[in-house]
Amino acid sequence: ANIAPSARRAWAMVTSAVTGSRADRMYLWSEVRGALADGGKSISHPEYLLRLLYVIEEGGCWERSVPLIYFIKNSHLILSLPIIVSADDLRRVGSRAVFDSRPDAVRQYSLFSHRFTWMAPHSRLSRVDGQDRLGPPMRAHPMTFLTPDTLPASIPLAIDFNASDPPTQCVCVGCNLGCNLVAASFTDHVVLSLSHLASAASDPSLLPYDATDVIPVADQQRLKDSIGQAGGVTWGGRRLVDACESGGGGRRVKMVILCGCKATDEFAVRVALGGSGMWDVLEVSTTERVVWAGKGVAERFPRTAAVLIDVVEALSVCV
Question: What is the pTM of this model?
Answer without folding.
Answer: 0.80
